[in-house]
Amino acid sequence: MLDVKKIQNVDLDYLTHIISTDEYDEEIFRTADEIRRKYVGDEVYLRAIIEFSNYCSQHCLYCGLRAENKNLTRYRMSVEEIVARAKLIAQMGIKTVVLQSGEDPYYTTEMMCDIIKQIKELDVAITLSIGERTFEEYRIWKELGADRYLMRHETASPELYAKLHPGDTFENRKAHLYEIKRLGYETGAGFMVGLPGQTPYDLALDLAFLKEIDADMIGIGPYIPNPDTPLKDANGGDLKTTLRMVALARIVVPTANIPATTALGSINPYGRQYGLKYGANVIMPNLTPNPYRPNYSLYPGKICLFEKDTACVECTKAMIKSVGLTVGEGFGSRKRIDEIFV
Asked: Which residues sit in the known binding site?
């Protein structure tokens, strides 16, 4: 029988055991769904992504945007294009705009200020997902109205992190996440499942870190090998283990906002639906305009690259309803315990 208390107390030995087997999956999935219903309800919130630049200064071994990839057609959207796309998102009734890019220093502090100020006039929440910037930039953008910052930690194993991120350390990534949290952003962390060399104990460490930082948002997806990276011949993450980690994350941090990620849908046509059934409560439709959208190629086989914007949003809403949940209409900020049990 599943010991929920040991999961919530992040008992590393116990977590390693249940991550290593599918013996407990039925109980894990059922418990995660019950906790999702109790703490965040049946509403699923849409967060529309604008992937505004695929330039990146980093060298992560798994990522198709890495600086060394010469087989990628690079692009940068102008401030005007980004704001115009945000206006379209607001007109669709979606209340969160996610600004995502590689780590691209072309977008200066001032440029990001301009973008944030214009988008905040649209009465939407802004999530930044642009990698590691300076602590001063985080402060400036928060004061201008940026609401959330998503920076997945990718793995909480210091050794594995160092191998996958040349010249960087997990301690440095943690320092950035803690500063973002201190500044009052809703803070997003998260990790990949199935990374080369990753162990069940490493995945248990990921859950422990989510608990430690009290993550407001948690992004979990399978590792998908990219042929234009040094890890092109590695095996990818599997659906079952990734869903297990989504469900365990819901049990560990009950009130967090957890997306059913695009990567889940990319390895299985029903991956996102399973994610919603097993603890997720957010969907992030890709509203990057074409011709840019196909070139934000983190991994091959990415879904939703050529659909029209309205069709993509309507498809997402239909997906939510197909698993018996409802489309959230508000900003979908993280709920506090005292808001739930009043």
From this structure: 56, 60, 63, 129, 154, 173
